[in-house]
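We now fix the convention by which a protein and its fold are recorded. These numbers are not coordinates but entries in a learned vocabulary of local backbone shapes. A record is reproduced here so that you can trace the correspondence yourselves:
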Amino acid sequence: MRILLWHVHGSWTDAFVRGRHEYLLPVLPGGGPWGLGRAGRDWPASVREVELASLDADAVDAVVLQRPEEVDEVARVLGRRPGADLPAVYVEHNTPKGDFPFTRHPLADQAGIPLVHVTHFNRLAWDNGAAVSTVIEHGIPDPGQLYTGELAELGVVVNEPVRRGRVTGTDLLPAFASVAPLQVFGMKTDGLAAATGVDALRLTSRGDLKTQELHRELARCRVYVHPMRWTSLGLSLLEAMHLGMPVVALATTEAPRAVPPEAGAVSADIDELLRCARRLVANPEEARRRGAAAREAALERYGLGRFQERWDELLGDLAAEPSQRGNNGLDERILVPARERKTP
């Protein structure tokens, strides 16, 4: 299939475009959110940059939407309405914002475009209304078991921690810095030590490293800390588990499902997380053992093969004639629009 999608979420796209289809990514001279294209990424030749305005509408077999505005943009430029005369699916990457748990999804009042949530928590948290919804969990290209844990330090990966504050658990970093020095990776981490009041000797901002360098440097840290309060899941957590790192994570959103107890600690009790982090920093062998358990769990649930199989099933179903479509493993109760359901 020839699939149109924008390069919106780099890590998710990195897994999605490694499938067996042809992927068309709009590109603009200035790049930006509507024209990023490949952005220099080392992706397969099946990932093509296209100028949307000059793209033959018949050259697109399906569109993967990731922002509500894309529905109208595709219809305007290609003259084909997603969900009506162009097979379409909408990927929801994020937890709801605003009046949770009453936040209604932007596509909740239609039934032509199925919603694919990247976590079970997301599907539960959003009010999906009449829209068909399912979950296809993340898939991670395996970076390999790179963990050395040679540094008695804690690794954290977070983008814009100063601006996002409590959302990303930035206020919790001083407590973790009291256990061991922190290495914080991600976009716009400059000034983080000063913003959190942590001594610069206890918190090093590493910045936004290239993927391979990030994996190599992160894997040197003894423990991975996931202090996120309200994010969908965080692919950095799954990458750390693939690397073979032990994990200390807040028991919020999808983390309790993603991280098994034997991989480290998952709790809403900060003191419990601090005790576990301290113990793992002091016991390299236990850290290595728990990291191996984290990697095993990540490979089983978040392997790239499983991710691509689920997407192939769904895309194949979109391309089929209506009479030939299956339910792609969707819960039968979800297939029925809410207004047509009968109360048991």
